[in-house]
Design goal:
It is a single chain. The protein contains eight helices and 23 strands. The longest helix is centred in the middle third of the chain and has 26 residues. The N terminus and C terminus are likely disordered. It comes from Candidatus Kaiserbacteria bacterium RIFCSPLOWO2_01_FULL_51_21.
Amino acid sequence: MEEKNTLQDMVPNDRRSIRRVEITPLRRPRDVREPSPAMPPPPPPRVPSFGTEKKRRFPEKNLTIWILASVVVVGLGFALSIFFTKTTMVITLKESSPIIDTTFGAHKTPVAGELPFEVITLDKNGSLAVPATGEEEANVRASGQIIIYNNYGSQAQRLVRNTRFESSDKRIYRIDKSVVVPGKTASGPGSLEVTVYADEPGEKYNADLMDFTVPGFKGSPQYDKFYARSKTPMTGGFVGKRLTVDPAALEKARETIRTTIKDDLTASAVAQIPEDFGLFEGALFFDFISLPQTDAGGTVQIQEKGVLHGLLFSKSELARVIAAASSAAPAEGVPLFLGEGSSLTFTVGAADTYAPWEKESFSFTLKGTARLVASFNENALKQDLAGKTKSALPTVLAGYPGIDHAEVVMRPFWRQEFPTDPLDITLSTAAQAELKQ
């Protein structure tokens, strides 16, 4: 068997020699890079200062934002200045302080130049329980308030003590003191409030509101022109046993009740007077009426009624007559008013002999220091200032002789004109004496 030439069998058919086979170098994968020469390490990253990087990278955008912000701030400031626009003016009025001790006349229906007065009348009841100390037989007459009317003539009419008033059901009541009923005026009949007492004791004279005639005028022209009407019911008539109290305790209780009533009535009168009117302490008059006592479980209820009559005067009218009497007007031809801080004592001559509130006229004395303050027309001044420049203020004020000077504050500070709407101008007044303090 012939041996095979192994090497020869492995030679390909083209019969090339193995020595001539070229060996091609193997290719490296594409993702494998040749090593580069050694490089120095990169420098550490630079940390920019705050805002520097932004400013370097976005200069145009940053400038736009700042411009828009400035416009917004300016616009907002302008809008707020318009919203908070305010003009105020503090006015100092001319004034004088004359010292007087002068007698004046007051009139219910004054003619030109005379001083008018008005009357305020208030009443109030009060009571206090006092322990009983005994018992007694009592005979008490009913009593109540009536208003007498004089529609007969302009002359006052005196009615003597015990003058009778007859009710429509023929019960008789009397006054316990002489009174003078004012005469009628153009505004109506004269009138006077009085207390009347039943002709006899007992409960049969207790009655509701009624009308009355004056029997003493029967057969005369006055009979139909003098009449009366109840202001309060007739109460307190009693005959029989009732509880009693110690006289000293009774008097103390009445004094306590009257003091309380007086304080309450004074406070009520002060609260009710108009702003332009003044009420002097000496122009307050009080009447007190002891009402019937009542028993209440071992105590006696002491009851009192108080009536206040106050004489009211206009502050401007008082200032006018005081200025005329003292020749101390702070400004010529300008309306005045009696300012706060006046220290005047008001006294009615012989007030204990008559009731000045019932008179058509009476005289009184004012003594002390009066504070006379000039006035001005506030609405007219606002109209004159509206739309004017601040520099025009002296010219405008020249037309208001009652004003001494004025200080103006305008906001915002650059504003130099008064608002065109008078309602946007705020005025306040200050007296010279107050500013000097």
